[in-house]
Amino acid sequence: MNTQTIAFVRPVKHSGLNPATPQRWSVADVEALFKLPFADLMFKAQQVHREHFDPNAVQLSTLLSIKTGGCSEDCGYCPQSAFHSTGVENRKMLDVDVVVKAAKAAQQSGADRFCMGAAWREPSDEDMVSVVEMVKAVRGLGMETCATLGMLNDKQTEQLRDAGLDYYNHNLDTSPEFYGDIISTRDYQDRLDTLERVRKAGMHVCSGGIVGMGENLTQRAGLVAQLANMEPYPESVPINNLVKVEGTPLAQTADLDPLDFVRTIAVARITMPTARVRLSAGRQQMSDAIQALCFLAGANSIFYGEQLLTTGNPDAERDRALLDKLGMYPFADQH
Questions:
Q1: 295 contacts 250 by C-beta, under 8 angstroms
Q2: Distance CA 313, CA 184 (A)
Q3: Backbone angles phi, psi at 57, to 5 degrees
C-alpha cells in the first residue's frame, strides 16, 4: 500500500485570502478524501483528532424543543413542518421555569451544553423576550448555551449575544446544489446570511447538515466543503443521519450505508480540525460498533438524553455504558 495517499490530499488555495485563514477545500478534494481506502481515511482522521483533542473525551449536549410543531418551512426531512402530516402537535412556547428545570436535570446527568430549539421560520419580537430570559437563566446555571431559532436579523443576534448565548445553531442541511430538492421556502443564501450575522455579533457558530437524504457523494462532499470553507469554519459541526418520519417527503429514502456515515464524520474532522464534530440525529438507529467507529473517526460531541426535538435518542444510561465500554468520558470530567 502506498501510504502517501493517507496524508496528501491537499486543499487548494484561493488568492485573496488572508494568509492567517485556513486553506480552502475544493469539492473535488473533499470527494477524494471520501474515496480513500477506509483504513487510510480513519488513520488520517485519528491523527488530526489527536493533534487537537483528547481522543477519549466527548462533550455531552442536551437539546430541548422550546416550541414544537407548526413551522412554516417545508423542509422535506422535518416532522415539525406545517406542510407535512406527521402527527406532531403544534404547541406554544414552553415557560421559562420549565426550560430551567430541564436544564438543571440535564446538568445533573452530566451535560455541559444546553441547546434550545424552536420550530418557526424566524422568531418574533415577542418570542425573543422569552428566549432571552431562557438564555440568561440557563447561562446562570453555569452551562454553555445554544439556540436554534431559524433566521435572525441583526437586532436579534445582538439580543442573544447580550443575553450570554454561547452558540447559535443554523444548519446548512446539504450542499447548495442539492438544497432545492429538500427545501423551497428558504434560500441557501438565507442560511449563510444568518450565520454571518451570528459571527458579526461575536457568538460561536454551530452548523452542520444531514446525510442520507438521497444526495450523491459529490453533493455530500459539497456540504462538507461549504462548511470547511467558512471563515472561520464552525466551532461546532453536527452531522445528522436522516431520521425517516412517516408523513415527510423523505420517509421512503433508501438508508445510507453506515460506513458512509462514518466516512462523513472522518472527512469533517480532517477538513475542520479544531471543530467539535457532533454525532447527532440518527444515533438511536446505530449499533455500538458504528458509534465507536464514529468516535474513532473524530466525533467528540453527542446529543445526550432520550429526546431530540421530536425524534428519539439513546437514553443516558445506554450512552454512559457505551462510553465506559470504550474507555471514554465526558469532556467536563477530563480534569
A1: no
A2: 28
A3: -100, 140
Average pLDDT of the chain, as a whole number? 83
**Tens-place pLDDT, residues 249-288:** 777 788 899 999 999 999 999 999 999 999 988 887 889 9
The catalytic residue among 191, 278, 283, 294 is 278
Which of 113, 146, 186, 220 does the annotation list as catalytic?
Answer: 146
Q: What is the pTM of this model?
A: 0.83
Segment 2-51, tens digit of pLDDT: 433 333 333 333 333 333 445 589 999 999 999 999 999 999 999 999 99
> What is the separation of C-alpha 182 from the centre of its chain, rounded to a whole number of angstroms?
17
Rounded Cα distance, 219 and 231, in Å: 21
DSSP 284: G
Could you confirm whether 71 is annotated as catalytic?
Answer: yes
Find the catalytic residue in 186, 197, 206, 283. Answer: 206
Catalytic site includes residue 318: no
The answer to whether residue 78 is catalytic is yes
| Surface-to-core class of residue 301, CB atoms within 10 Å of its CB (0-12 exposed, 13-18 middle, 19+ buried) | buried
